[in-house]
Write a structure and sequence with these properties.
The protein is an alpha/beta fold. Helix content is about 30%, strand content about 20%. Pfam families: GFO_IDH_MocA (PF01408), GFO_IDH_MocA_C3 (PF22725). InterPro entries: Gfo/Idh/MocA-like_OxRdtase_N, Gfo/Idh/MocA_oxidoreduct, GFO_IDH_MocA-like_dom, NAD(P)-bd_dom_sf.
Length: about 375
């Protein structure tokens, strides 16, 4: 019988310096109630804010004790005291902001929202611009800092489950589709499923092939391809990782809602399963994890923590960027790495469109003007 180490670190590693002056662009829910709450709890320094509407920016600043408010994001970017840029606006506008930000010598790091862009070309340009300017770029793929996912990653790395055989995510949730998405036909995989796509990469790496199917969500009136989706990643070692994303999540009128995210990983030597607490927001509901392993037969382990995905995970996404700036290293969730997640999103849509399994190499060759390893090819 082996010894099971139940020290499963779920808290992010913090930078030595926490007082980098952060300029925040956007004052909606994600910024006001997630980023800024998490930053204050972590001891970070949100120094200035701007928004599309000045009154909203001013209200967020007063609520979260931010000393400087700008009328435009252009004015904010021009403030030489700002060292870190935190962008929380619709992703189809991020490239415009980054193009101006990379011209400012005082900006050392940029945290972008996910998806990084609404298409691969714009995403590549964002990464190239930041790398060319020597600015650290990170992507707010915050599910990587959900506490159950951090613990699961440690369990996998320690070999408690042995070689993974099957991984599943089942989501029943009703998201709010932002107004800007109404002009796009790709919604669920690019804006919700990308969490699960990125977490499969975090846990298991890149797959060889992808199979995806989708149908429209009856609740969503604007034209779209993917409302309810299922996508499966095929790995070289035969691991299957699959997610069912149900944003219809019936019931109808008068019925009790049953919203949740469940996950499960089965390996040759053990099994882990749990839940993500996010569908209960704003109630603080920690995610859960339980696992069993052949190394300690007939025993279930159920670690506990007080943190929750929203808003606590947002400490981690900023912390990893600040550490990268501090140590002149690549962020854990760097822009270059995130291009791989976007490639898998594109593979899902290609699979849906062509009704077949798609090799990841097809997507890489589709954007042959770019390389995933170091910039644009000649």
């Amino acid at each position: 019988m082996g010894t099971i180490d139940l020290h499963l670190p779920v808290e992010p590693v913090m930078p030595k310096r926490k007082d980098y002056r952060i300029g925040c662009i956007g004052s909606g829910f994600i910024m006001r109630d997630c980023h800024l709450v998490a930053y204050r709890d972590a001891g970070f320094n949100p120094y200035a804010i701007s928004s599309r509407t000045f009154d909203n920016a001013k209200a967020a600043a007063e609520l979260r004790q931010i000393p400087v408010v700008y009328r435009t994001w252009e004015e904010l970017i021009g403030d030489p005291r700002i060292e870190i840029l935190d962008i929380a606006i619709p992703p189809d506008r991020q490239l415009e902001v980054v193009r101006r930000a990379v011209k400012q010598d005082h900006i050392k790091g940029i945290l972008c929202q996910k998806p990084l862009a609404m298409n691969a070309r714009d995403a590549h340009e964002i990464v190239e611009l930041c790398e060319g300017a020597g600015i650290k770029i990170a992507v707010n793929s915050n599910m990587r800092y959900d506490q159950s996912m951090r613990a699961l990653k440690t369990i996998l790395d320690r070999g408690y489950l042995g070689e993974p055989v099957l991984a599943t995510i089942e989501m029943r949730a009703i998201p709010h589709w932002q107004e800007f998405l109404h002009t796009y036909s790709h919604i669920e995989i690019l804006n919700m499923g990308i969490h699960h796509i990125d977490i499969f990469r975090y846990l298991f790496g890149d797959p060889e092939k992808i199979t995806a199917v989708a149908r429209r969500d009856p609740r969503t009136p604007f034209p779209h391809i993917d409302g309810i989706t299922q996508y499966t990643f095929h790995y070289a070692n035969e691991l299957l990782a699959t997610s069912l994303d149900d944003v219809w999540a019936w019931p109808g009128e008068g019925a009790e809602k049953d919203l949740y995210i469940k996950w499960r990983v089965e390996g040759l030597d053990g099994m882990a399963q749990g839940t993500i607490g996010w569908p209960s927001y704003p109630e603080r509901t920690p995610s859960t994890l339980e696992f069993t392993t052949k190394q300690s037969p007939n025993q279930w382990y159920r670690p506990l923590w007080n943190g929750v995905w929203f808003p606590d995970a947002f400490q981690g996404t900023m912390a990893q960027l600040l550490r990268a700036v501090e140590t002149d290293s690549e962020p854990e969730i760097g822009g270059r790495d995130n291009l791989r997640s976007l490639a898998l999103v594109d593979a899902c849509y290609k699979s849906i469109s062509e009704q077949r399994t798609v090799a990841l190499t097809e997507i890489e060759s589709q954007y042959s003007a770019y390389t995933f390893e170091g910039g644009m090819q000649p």
